Structure formats: C-alpha cells, structure tokens
Amino acid sequence: MNNIPKVKIGIVAVSRDCFPESLSVNRRKALIDAYKAKYDEADIYECPICIVESEIHMVQALEDVKKAGCEALVVYLGNFGPEISETLLAKHFDGPAMFIAAAEESQNDLSDGRGDAYCGMLNASYNLKLRNIKAYIPEYPVGTADECADMIHDFVPIARAIVGLKNLKIISFGPRPLNFLACNAPIKQLYNLGVEIEENSELDLFEAFNKHAGDARIPDVVKDMENELGAGNKKPEVLSKLAQYELTLLDWIEEHKGYRKYVTIAGKCWPAFQTQFGFVPCYVNSRLTGRGIPVSCEVDIYGALSEYIGTCVSDDIVTLLDINNSVPADMYEQSIKGKFNYTHKDTFMGFHCGNTCSSKLTNFSMKYQKIMARNLPVEVTNGTLEGDIVPGDITFFRLQSTADNVLRAYVAQGEVLPVATCSFGGIGVFAIPEMGRFYRHVLIEGNYPHHGAVAFGHHGKALFEVFKYIGVCPDEIGYNHPASVPYRTENPFA
Asked: pTM higher than 0.85, yes or no?
C-alpha cells in the first residue's frame, strides 16, 4: 500500500499552570509506555521539549513535532489544561488533531494528585468551537494510560484518511456514460476537501495507450499477470493489450500527479471503450486497486474518492460494487434461512463486471464481459475478472456530494455470506442487518447512486469519524438503523 500515508503521530501534553506540571509529565510517560507496549511504536512521537502551559510553549511544541515529521497530533490533557494554548496547537498544526484527557488514578491521591482533566476537556471543546477548529474527540475521551493508548490507536486510521485526502489527486477519463447521471460529481466539494481533480477525455487516454504500443516492459507485465491468474487465465490472447493499458495508466499517474503524493482514478469502460481499445479494463483496474490505487468504474469520481478513503482507513484493498440485485427466494430458503440470522430482506447481491482484486475473490478467472457481449463481439469484451467475493465481514459505504454541493455519506456494516452466487462477474451474497429499511430510507430516500464502496472488515467506527471530521453533518451520515430505531421518513403505520 504505497499510495496511502504512513502517519506519524505527535503526542503533546498540556498543563494548566495552577496544577502540578508533574501530573502531565508522569501521565504522558505512562501513556507513551502503554502505547509502545501495545502497538507499533514507529508511528508515535513523544514531544519532549516541554509541557505546554503557555503560547510560547505551544510554538515550541509545534516546531518540535513539525521537525520530527509528524502528520497528526494528539493533544493530551494531563490535567485541566490551558484552554487557549492547547486549542492553538490544533489551530496551527497542519494536519488532523485529536484531544484526549487523563483519568484520575486512585482514591488515595485526590488532593495534589487530582488533575481535573475531565473538566478541562469541556473547556477545550468549547474553545475549539469558538475558534472553528476541527478536532477528533473520541466517544469517551477521558481514560487511563491504557485506555488513552487505545484511543490513539483508533485515531491512526482516521488520521491516515485525513492526511491522504489533503494530498490526493483524482484523475478521471470521461465523461461518464449516457444514462449514468447517478455518478454525477460536483467538483466544488472536492476542492473543499483539499482534493485535486484532473479531468481528461477518453481521446487523451487512447492517444497515450497507442503510444505505449511495443513498450519493452509489456512482456514482464504479461508474465506477472499470468502468474497471478494461473488456471484462471481464460483469455491469454488479450494479456498483451491489458499490459499495455496498465503501463499507460501507471505512466500517466507518474507524469500527472504533480505536487500530490497520492492518486486514484475514475475510469471509463463503455460504450466506445471496448470497440476502440479492443478489450475491457476491469482486470487492470483490479490490479491497480490491489496496489492501493483504487480505480472506479464508469467515471464515478466520488466512488473513487470513497474507495480511497476506505483504503486509508482499512489499510487494505477495497472494491466498488453495484448494489445490484435481490437474492432469489429459493437461494435464500436453501442456503441462508436457518443457517444465518438474516431475513430475506437483509440480503442482496453486490456485483461489478470484474474490478475486484483477485485476492478478494474465490476461484477467480479472467473472461469476457457477459452483459457487453450481448451487443458486441465477444473478442472486444475480454478482460473482466470474475469470481465470488471472499466471505467475511465488510463495510458498505459512500461519500457523495449532492447536485447543490451538500456532502452526504452512509456507512453500513455486514458480511459476505459463504453462499455460491450461481452468477457471473465479481459478485457476492451480502447481508446487512435491516438492509431492507436501509435500502429504502437511506439509499433511495437519500438519492444515492447504485455504486457503493466496500471495505473488507468492520470499519464503520473510523469511517463515521472521518466523514464527521471532513465536514459531513452527522445528520447527513446514514446508517442501518436497528429495528427499534425508526428513520425520519419511515411510515409509522406501515
């Protein structure tokens, strides 16, 4: 995963000058020791210069963590804390910031050993709001050294996503296909998020592809594809063109990323792509996604953005799928009912032609694209990667800007069931608790497109916090409500 940041977090302890500084010193040391004992110490840095009590200390601490290469900041209230200096830390730090506070240790030391950080956190949050400063505050931000170490560990994927977005360029090749208005991409919110966007035409891409004909690197890429596909290499005649296309995209990234560190692509695959390029790009898209460079289908710019956020949060491969079709009743009765605790309406099938990485598929093979081949010669639809998606926990999610530039998002946790799909493409049988209601009152009511990003594992907690941090109103973050919690638009008499 070379296309996402490896975030180094700086820990700065703060102290109110009318409280013993030793409380913050000793509690910071205990926190660092706890973190290093539980987690990889390479991503954390203890600011040793001072305990921040004043604005001068704040400047010294900022210079220190910047010099140390920290990209994220934890402000640790070892006692009540100086509400002005500590919030200025977050204001002037160029990156995501988190605020946590120390719990009291013992009933035997509640005189000189009482720090009142529980109270101080209230003042910190108030001052952050007054100054319009963004900061991540955990669900319960006061804890022991061990508990605060866990909070920092939870902050790592959130910080990784925020830092990644600040350094991201989305490269698109479009425009989107006809009848794909759902994949609209208002550009304004991308800029508001700090994301750069480079929009190109298919003709630009086609020209670059043709210039890569005969590239000396093609045989090595073909060999790598052959090794990956193994017995699933059902269309060997198209590998050379696919390798040429892969090199075209990788070279384009290097030549066009400019001052940005990270890149994702919103690509085109129809209607003219197949006949002009002579293949479909699905397998190449899957390979780049496997390297941490998500490539969305059908010029879905916010789909690509969502995939990238999921890559940063999960530190793993993601995919983009259509929320595609219902599970047939006979499949539910035979393979799901009584074996898994889901109703029929909790289930659906997620599908795309073949953009899911081979490591996330079972019994995969590279074939032709069945839907496209209904209207075109089979030979120009070769290049799609098919297989059932690996069973296990997943998070379905998406970030989207509405046509009037309002950021919205949804997050739902569930799983891919170990049920044979009996179908084609990259596809899986998904189950999300209360999916039927979520489908109606979040996806349909919220006018979301049919594409959803999929992270492998349960990452809803971090994704929810990322969406809040980047400016999505919490009321605009949909999730699958339990049966006891009605949606705002749900008919109480239905």
From this structure: yes
